[in-house]
Amino acid sequence: MPLAIVTGSDSGIGRATAVALAQAGYDVGITWRSDQVGAQGTADEVRATGRAAHIAHLDLGDPATAAGIIDGLAEELGGLDVLVNNAGGGNAGPVLEIELDDLAQTLNVNVVGSFACAQAAARRMISAGTAGRIINVTSIHEHLPLPGAADYVAAKHALGGLTKSMALELAPHRITVNSVAPGQIATEMTGNDDVDPHTIERPKIPLRRPGDAREVAAMIVALAGPGGGYTTGASLLVDGGMALVGPALAN
């Protein structure tokens, strides 16, 4: 049976991804930073599909702990085929007002922490001879800037570059590395948690609505499965066409 870890899977895109992977036959490792109850809810949904779920606390603000958490969950699962680096975050504010400590924290969570998780997963996959998958959840801001979010934009650009570099180096080991770049998704992060995105009007987005976390999860599951075996170093936008007009104009 395939085995996956999804970081930041206590809510939103991470939760939808963990459940979608379970529905596709994966046992799933779940991590949380501040919402243990949410992580337990994700685990309950995974187990309801008949798959196993294991939970661990992971705070990428302290990236030195990340490798040990990934290794521990992989041991509980009995191996690792897929890592989804979903945990992330950032601070809002004008570039002239961003504190260096806040910038460092955003980079730690989105880049250093994600690197540590991916490195641990890759080492384990290589050791086991696994043709694995690493999927980094970035953002439309991996590609396009947004005023008032310079630290987040910088971090997601960096994670996109890391994705491509890892894809090149890990290809000889039959490990693919890709990113999925969501646009505006109806989650807690955008203030639309538990809202049907089809009921929300966003006239400046070409598809005229925000996305559903399950639509992002479906792309991740596709990359994780057999059909994703020849895709590496790619960044797949799930944005309703927002990149065609630019996020600054679509908000």
Radius of gyration: 17 Å
Query: How can the largest sheet be summarized?
Result: 7 strands, parallel
* Strand count: 7
Helix coverage percent: 40-55%
Topology as a string of helices (H) and strands (E): EHEHEHEHEHEHEHH
CATH topology: Rossmann fold
Instruction: Report the structural category.
Output: alpha/beta
**CATH-defined superfamily:** NAD(P)-binding Rossmann-like Domain
Number of domains: 1
Output mean pLDDT: 94
Low-pLDDT parts are none
- In whole angstroms, the N-to-C terminal distance is 42 Å
The CATH architecture would be 3-Layer(aba) Sandwich
Give the overall form. globular
How many DSSP helices? 8
Under CATH at level 1, the class stands as: Alpha Beta
Layout of strands and helices, then pairs:
Blueprint: E1 3-6, H1 12-23, E2 27-32, H2 36-48, E3 53-57, H3 66-77, E4 82-85, H4 100-128, E5 133-137, H5 150-170, E6 176-182, H6 213-224, E7 235-238, H7 242-245, H8 247-250
Parallel strand pairs: 1-2, 1-4, 2-3, 4-5, 5-6, 6-7
Helix pairs in contact: 1-2, 1-6, 3-4, 4-5
How would you describe what is shown here?
With 251 residues, the protein is α/β, with parallel strands linked by helices. It has helices at residues 12-23, 36-48, 66-77, 100-128, 150-170, 213-224, 242-245, 247-250; strands spanning 3-6, 27-32, 53-57, 82-85, 133-137, 176-182, 235-238. It has one domain (3-250): NAD(P)-binding Rossmann-like Domain (Rossmann fold), CATH 3.40.50. It has 8 helices and 7 strands, in the order βαβαβαβαβαβαβαα. It has a 7-stranded parallel sheet with strand order 3-2-1-4-5-6-7, sandwiched between helices. Helix 1 (12-23) packs parallel to helix 2, helix 1 crosses helix 6 (213-224) and helix 3 runs parallel beside helix 4 (100-128). It starts with a strand and ends with a helix.
